[in-house]
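Regression check, fe (ii) ion case 193:
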Amino acid sequence: MVEKPFLKTRKNETSFLKCVMNMADLFLGKIPEQREADTMGIIDVQKAIKDSIQTEKDAMDFYKYGAERMMEDKARQTFEILAREEYQHAESFYRIYPGDDIPSFQEFMNAPPNTESDWWKGLQNLLMQDFDERKALELAIEQEDALEKSLREMAAKIDNPEISKVYLANATSTHNHLELVEDDYKAMFGMSS
Ligand SMILES: [Fe+2]
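Current build output:
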């Protein structure tokens, strides 16, 4: 079962920018008492969100390029769905990103894959040893599981409730990804990984 995206796709650039600017205000002093309460500090939270955008893109690239290698229809479709959802996850983090160093989300997402990411390195390893669907699904399960944990940890660390909520929503969606891939794995190989 595929969950619905938890945040509606933005209607237009203006409302999107407004939303980003509101979040920036939140960071940059409109609610100072809340800012001070942030366990991580503003700069750390900004960096964490930027890293999260990157991680979601890394996951998207893994599924996008992995899908091209999948021979089995169902697994390929799952990877294609997940690539699209990772794009939405990245967008949800971009919406709350207060930095101004990523002027275009589209451009950021269209950039070549980050060759330093665990997702990408894992995929390259698989490609070097004759792409194996079973291993690709196992890798996806492993990565989604680790990602869910780190998103929940981050949600617990960030005191700003709006930002924490985005992390929790992504963690839930990431858990659904894990289950989706596990279902494919069971359907194809008849057992749990
Ligand atoms: Fe994700």
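Comparison notes: Residues 1-22, 28-38 have pLDDT under 50 and may be disordered. The chain has eight helices and no strands. No diff flagged against the previous build.
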